[in-house]
Amino acid sequence: MLDILRRIVLWGGLALLCVLPPLAEALGEGFYTVMVSRVLILALGAVSLNLILGYGGMVSFGHAAYLGLGAYVVGILAYHSGDWFGTESAFVAFPAAMLVSALFALAIGAISLRTSGVYFIMITLAFAQMVYFFFVSQQEYGGMDGMQMWSRSDAGPLDLSDDASFYYLALVLLLAILFLKHRLVQSRFGMVLRGIRENERRMRALGFPTYRYKLVGFVIAGAVAGLAGALMANLTEFVSPSLLHWTRSGELMVMVILGGMGSIAGPVLGAFAFLVLEDVLSEITQHWMIVLGPLLILIVLLARRGLYGLLTPEDQGEGRDK
Q1: I need a labelling partner for 307 at 20 to 30 A (CA). Which of 9, 134, 150, 224 fits?
Q2: Contact (Cβ atoms closer than 8 angstroms) between residue 155 and residue 93
Q3: Which of 275, 273, 170 is nearest to 228 (CA)?
């Protein structure tokens, strides 16, 4: 019964997402297209974090650094569009955002993955704050105030200035990443990564180079977060250091835990639940976080495997991919 309910929720939700822009336009509520685009982008960021948190057991409190770097790469390339290295092309800016974020994740991971536990958490947080304050000090790019993009990236035949077109791009990219992530975690690499989460010492005793596996996972997660940042910069047409702040990392972590760690669709559900709660509660009171905190604690206590776990039979276990 739960399996049928799970399929209804997932496929019904996907069908609704596919028809949302024309449906919202028909109802005269076009702002829902932009709002859900934001949810899809942050869901992409949460999915990237879930790869290392849910499957690798790596509690990174600096994941927003890769999100912000991806956004700044797009913003800076657009700012210098008249120079030899600047461009507004999405076909250049998006891969560049992923590459820069991946390289930064490689540098951070190479150092921080030599530690574990609270030391790993603090090192990732420290690196992320270093990047945050670096962009705060860059007055040419707006400093603390951020910088405005004059338009969205140029994607050739796809007009990203149209909210519906941009929405479908974000949806397709999220679905593509979910598919690739499913294939990845079902592969030998994914099996080893989950084994490291359960017992790294045993995996090393079996002859697996656990450091290299974790580093590769860390870099992949950083690259996907960079893609989410590139999309976020285009959605808002604005880039600021707030995208890199540690509180953004905390929000992504809450989305993963709320939706269900170690599941494919869990972070997407968590992103939708978190942002809908934020939107609804902020309409009621400006101190909405006071209400959201206890509510999140209650959800976590009642659904220890997250919202996705409520739709999954207990005997399938936490670490299985759905």
Answers
A1: 224
A2: no
A3: 170
Helix 210-236 and helix 163-186: axis angle, to 10°? 170
DSSP secondary structure string for all residues of 224-251: HHHHHHHHHHHHHTEE-GGGGSHHHHHH
pLDDT digits (tens, 9 = 90+) for 211-247: 999 999 999 999 999 999 999 999 999 999 999 999 8
Q: Is the pLDDT of residue 280 over 90?
A: no
Nearest-CA neighbor of 108 among 61, 70, 71, 75?
Answer: 61
Query: Per the structure block, which two tokens stand in for 26?
Result: 């028909």
Q: Got the DSSP string for 98-142? A: HHHHHHHHHHHHHHHTTS-HHHHHHHHHHHHHHHHHHHHT-GGGT
Query: What tokens were used for 272?
Result: 């939708």
DSSP designation for 265: S
DSSP 159-180: -TTSHHHHHHHHHHHHHHHHHH
**Contact criterion met (CB below 8 Å) for 124 and 101:** no
The helix (H) or strand (E) run that includes residue 148 is: strand 147-148
Count of C-beta atoms within a 10 Å radius of residue 166: 24
Contact 69, 226 (CB under 8 A): yes
The yes-or-no verdict on residue 11 having pLDDT over 90 is: no
Q: What is the mean pLDDT of residues 74-96?
A: 88
Could you identify the residue written with the tokens 């559900």?
269
pTM: 0.91
Out of 53-62, 71-80, 163-172, 283-292, which region has the weakest mean confidence (pLDDT)?
A: 283-292
Residue type, 110: A
The Cα–Cα gap between 160 and 152 comes to 6
Question: In whole angstroms, what is the distance from residue 186 CA to residue 191 CA?
Answer: 7
Which stretches of 186-288 are assigned E, i.e. beta strand?
Answer: 238-239
- Residue 289, token pair as written in the block: 């976080």
Distance CA 13, CA 15 (A): 5
Say how far apart CA 262 and CA 64 lie, in whole Å.
20
The DSSP H or E segment spanning 52 is helix 31-53
